[in-house]
Amino acid sequence: MQWVGLRPRIPGRGLSTFCSKWSSVHVLMLVVLGVGPSASARHHMQLMVKPSRNTDVLRAMHFSAGIPVSTVLTGMFVCGLLRTPNIDRLAEEGVKLTQHLAAAPVCTPSRSSFLTGRHSFRSGMEADDGYRVLQWNGGSGGLPANETTFARILQQQGYATGLIGKWHQGVNCESRTDHCHHPLNHGFDYFYGMPFTLVNDCRPGGSPELDAVTRARLRLYTQMAALGVLTVAVGKTCGLISVSWKVVLGAASLVFLFFVTWYASFGFVRRWNCILMRNHDVTEQPMVLETTAGRMLHEAVSYIERNKHRPFLLFVSLLHVHVPLATTKHFLGKSQHGLYGDNVEEMDWLVGEILKAVEVNGLKNTTFTYFTSDHGGHLEARDEHGQLGGWNGIFRGGKGMGGWEGGIRVPGIFRWPGVLPAGRVMHEPTSLMDVFPTVVQLGGGDVPQDRVIDGRSLVPLLRGTAEHSAHEFLFHYCGKYLHAARWHEKDSGRLWKVHYMTPWFHPEGAGACYDRRLCPCSGDGVTQHSPPLLFDLSRDPSEARPLSPSSEPRYHTVVARVGEAVKQHRRTLSPVPPQFSLSNIIWKPWLQPCCGTFPLCACRQDGDPSET
């Protein structure tokens, strides 16, 4: 979810109020831009066009990658079961976007698009095949230094810029301390949080999640090789095989070397990936899940208090709601929806505490707040007890599916008391990429002119000076593959969606790829449609009834018009170095962030050495 604020702030609305309009929230981004109490700052808020340098901007973003927050889920499965009064209040006091769309269906590329206002493939933050998100803190891939984030532009405008929480855009390039992809190299002047993302491996004793298939294969290969060497050794001892002991020992050494090579990374996922950093320093390795949420809340509140008298941007990216659903004892067993519900309700409390800090410091009426998610719910996230909470309501598909609405339709809430009308609901197609030009405009900066910017400022739409979204067409990618495109025919009000590729569901008709962790973007796991599938989302938001020439007289006209738009869009593409290549993805010990002496990396909060 995202919460963006410019010191007008957005009260929230949760499950009970979103049930009729929203599907899922898998990642919570909270962005708050704060406008200071000075007269000039107040004037700027009213105009929202050319903020002066002394405009206070508080930006707090909260992501919760992978599993939707039920607060914005649709339908009776969860509606009414989860208590989210703080998010409810955000929506009630703000503007709600019902067709808000992520630029990618998984976290790393979606976040890079959000930060830069550009499709992630323009910066190499997408995959042809294989890995679709960054896998290691010790990898060399990440958001390139030549990309411009909204934080960098606001920093140049005199704002303090802080990021609290999840990053997942890379850390290093060539050495353990170069921090080329680090938040402080992308416009943030303060960072506290997790440079990676939550995975099951972060919980002691948790089932392997990170590259689990590869890990299982490597373990199997090692066992088979070891068994082979052992068989030869027994045969040699019994005189059944004529081979020298030197050959046996050499083979055993090779097997041991193979084991050490892969186990040095996969055997210590929690220690290498599940860490906390403050600015450039590792403060906890491995991190303690039970205390992380409280520490991030303390950091967010402290940041607001430290910067309340100056322009600031705070991006809060909480780790809720994401497997392994780490929840403090105070919230365990309190919801009516199991551990997932407990985690959602704790997240709502955290959001409420951050909003309270804004209010206590006298910033409520001068804070612009934005709340959203980075992709749809993770339907394949399951354990032995069943699904872990992800559900996308009436929308088809989920996390990892770049074309279906369930993978990319996310909540969007904007609040700015006295500037944006409370309770307004807008049905115009908008994108997470739109936040970049919106925030840049509100912060008094200029959108870069030396590159393609896919986002469009939402200021006219939010203020009511524009009736329609600036997007006539939006293009939906899965990795580097265009899966779908939508056309908002403004004159007729029709919203057309054309699918060129869709994933195979398993089992057939199940609505997800339960035979794997995520549906694939290409290869044997997808169907290429020729002619493409056509839906009218204005009448069929569930994408349940594909149109045909016999059922829709304008079928060929619509498909042709969208096809022409796709051709024009593809003319804007250019090759860039791939950040998700195997050479960038794999773990490199010399790039691994470490507190202490590598490989003996271990510390508690604030860097105190410890036995862990």
From TrEMBL:
The keyword Transmembrane helix appears for this protein: yes
Domain Sulfatase N-terminal: 83-444
Pfam families from the UniProt entry: Sulfatase, Sulfatase_C
Stored SUPFAM superfamilies: Alkaline phosphatase-like
Transmembrane segments: 21-40, 60-82, 224-245, 251-269
GO molecular function: arylsulfatase activity; metal ion binding
Aminoacyl-tRNA synthetase is among the record's keywords: no
Family matches, as InterPro entries: Alkaline_phosphatase_core_sf, Sulfatase, Sulfatase_CS, Sulfatase_N
Alphabetized UniProt keyword annotations: Calcium, Hydrolase, Membrane, Metal-binding, Transmembrane, Transmembrane helix
Entry cofactors: Ca(2+)
GO cellular component terms, semicolon-separated: endoplasmic reticulum
Family of the protein in this entry: Belongs to the sulfatase family.
PANTHER family assigned to the protein according to its UniProt record, in alphabetical order: ARYLSULFATASE D, ARYLSULFATASE FAMILY MEMBER
Protein name: Arylsulfatase D
Annotated organism of origin: Ursus americanus
Organism placement in taxonomy: Eukaryota, Metazoa, Chordata, Craniata, Vertebrata
